[in-house]
Amino acid sequence: MKYSDPRLQNLLAGEYVLGVLHGAARRRFERLLMESRTLAAEVTAWEGRFASWALRLKPVAPPDYLEWRLMGRVRNESRGRSVTTRNLFWRTWAVAATVVLAIVVVSQRLTPPAQVKAAEFALMSDAKGTPLWLISVHPEANRVDMKVVTPNPPPAGKSYELWMIPDGGKPVPMGLMNETGQASETVSSELLARLAGAKALAISEEPQGGSPTGQPTGPVLWVAPLVTT
Amino acid sequence: MAAVSQESPDRNRVLTDLLHACAQGRQTAFQALYREVSPQLFAVLVRILKRKDLAEEALQDALLSVWRNAGSYAAEKGAPMTWMVSICRYRALDMLRRERREVSLDMEREDIDEDGQEVSEGEMVTDTVSVSKAEERKLDECMGRLNDGQRRSIRLAYVDGCTHEEIAAKVGSPVGTVKSWVRRGLESLKRCLEAA
């Protein structure tokens, strides 16, 4: 084919934007797109021509946890640009697994096995994999524990607030994070039931004393999945 | 050129400011951008992918790419919303292609397609904020000049991400006919849209 033919170029650009150019033809076109400004301009023109169809679709709100997950990834990327995502993932999990194992071992020593119920854990770490808080949910005791692993106080005039990210629905406030040692929050059975279906926990930066609105108002700094032991 | 006037200047300015702030690594700007654009982008993705879980994956990938590439956005790439819609659509089309390779058009997708007919008027909202009326009318007018097969084929490809083969199955015509409808339709459309 003669790609220099303007009529053909325009046609291919239109087909590319529609998505009906497939396989080898699409790859060839993408290669040409890299070196031809004319072709790139044709593509942009077609994208602009059809955009009003996309913008006339009735908006659909994505689930709230998507925002949290995305902000968590953006945060991680920004903090550890030198650390690859894969490395970060495995490092975080390696630390998480170690801490969870340690806790299981300790709790098994302290309490008879029969009384150990399924607890859930979330480890909040920074981009280098340094664990900051270990949060554990104890359904049998209506309690959520927040243990400081590495002290990480909020900036002056700010507080860190813990949120549960339910599977659908808005984040639920779970209290302020402690700066040292270990703190416990008593939680209602209703909240525990929702926690059982929760995807993750998150921590946001809020004005001192916590969010004034009952919903996160500041940046989401850490997000961690809930892991059952 | 035409692409920039697709949207209201005010909204374009806000979105461009947010993209600019994202390029400087400001996460709060990205969060604001997310809240501003995600419902429209998600609608586009749900429409093409037909499944919420896939649409969520695509939205996350596409917006992460917006965050990483915010610095490369420029007016010559179209209006900000057009640029972001395109990133989402190409991501969704990639996912569809991957899926088609794995399962050759299984029954499940056919079933779901039943309620994914052409965009009906009921599903459309007139977004006076972001779409210039004149541009929109012009596209409608030029589409109105195409024949029925050309019109349906182009819409099914753009809005639903259908392949030639899928369009052929939907409208009950041979694949070759659909291919030439798309080509002729695109040519007429371009001529009509460029005529002032």
Give a brief outline of the structure:
Chain A contains 6 helices and 9 strands. With 229 residues, chain A is of the alpha+beta class.
Please outline the helices and strands:
The complex is a heterodimer of chains A (229) and B (196).
Chain A: H1 6-18, H2 23-35, H3 37-55, H4 64-79, H5 85-110, E1 120-125, E2 131-138, E3 143-148, E4 158-165, E5 172-176, E6 182-186, H6 189-196, E7 200-207, E8 220-225, E9 227-228
Antiparallel strand pairs in A: 1-2, 1-9, 2-3, 3-6, 4-5, 4-7, 7-8
Helix pairs in contact in A: 1-3
Chain B: H1 9-23, H2 27-49, H3 52-69, H4 80-102, H5 107-113, H6 133-144, H7 148-160, H8 164-171, H9 175-194
Helix pairs in contact in B: 1-2, 2-3, 2-4, 3-4, 6-9, 7-8, 7-9, 8-9
Structural write-up:
- The complex is a heterodimer of chains A (229) and B (196).
- Chain A is of the alpha+beta class and 229 residues long.
- Chain A has helices at residues 6-18, 23-35, 37-55, 64-79, 85-110, 189-196, and strands at residues 120-125, 131-138, 143-148, 158-165, 172-176, 182-186, 200-207, 220-225, 227-228.
- In chain A, the strands form two sheets. In chain A, strands 6-3-2-1-9 form a five-stranded antiparallel sheet, with helices on one face.
- In chain A, α1 runs parallel beside α3 (37-55).
- The N and C termini of chain A lie far apart (61 Å).
- Chain B is mainly α and 196 residues long.
- Helix content of chain B is 71%, strand content 0%.
- In chain B, α2 packs antiparallel against α3 (52-69), α6 crosses α9 (175-194) and α7 (148-160) packs across α8 (164-171).
- Residues 1-6 and 104-130 of chain B have low confidence and may be disordered.
- Classes of the chains: A alpha+beta (229), B mainly alpha (196).
- Chains A and B meet through α1, α3 and α4 of A and α2, α3, α4, α6 and α7 of B.
